[in-house]
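Ticket #191: bound-state structure for flavin mononucleotide.
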Amino acid sequence: MHIKTANTKTNVHDLIKKRWSARSFSPKQLSEDDVQTILEAGTWAASSMNEQPWKYLYAMNGTKGFDRMHSCLMTGNQPWSNNGSVLMISLAKKNFEYKGRINRHAMHDMGAANSTLLLQAADMDVYGHMIGGFDMQKTLEEFNIDSEKWEIACFIVLGYLDDAEKLDEPFLSREKKARTRRSVSEISTKI
Ligand SMILES: Cc1cc2nc3c(=O)[nH]c(=O)nc-3n(C[C@H](O)[C@H](O)[C@H](O)COP(=O)(O)O)c2cc1C
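RESOLUTION: The complex was predicted; output attached.
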């Protein structure tokens, strides 16, 4: 198993270092209880006005729902995500309940929920990979999503890790490639 724990300069929490976007997933399936735990973790993310402007559609591998979701992914994302145990579509609600006002924080808050659930997953040795490469129109139609109300943030595939060597190129190299980040000095300015 190729574990890509983050190599940090400071004392970052082990759980944050542990999460990474895997591509090689084992046949071991998540249980429904596991999925419920991961989804509940996401609900504890902060959101503007506690609106919780997120919704997840999910399907377990081996079901028609999984195949329908999988068929909406771009071809470059299909070969490796095929072995994931669960596929999710994360949706952000565009308007606040209150007077239907536009919620400009919706995608931000959706992202916070996604990050939170992925940390919960990592703690359970479940690895997730967010996927922005999907066919928007096909997904809207396939799942009858009202694009006036909902913005599709991304897909997420979840599963237990397997050997990188199970993957074909170019995914094998990507799975083995070291993770890098911009430095704190590049992404922050002390005022
Ligand atoms: C919104 C979003 C969309 C992404 N879309 C894809 C994608 O379509 N295909 C892919 O292989 N990875 C995708 N990724 C994964 C990123 O490439 C990955 O998070 C990034 O390289 C950092 O790696 P790490 O998550 O392992 O730290 C996406 C990530 C996010 C957050």
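RESOLUTION NOTES: The domain at 24-180 is CATH 3.40.109.10 (NADH Oxidase).
TICKET STATUS: resolved
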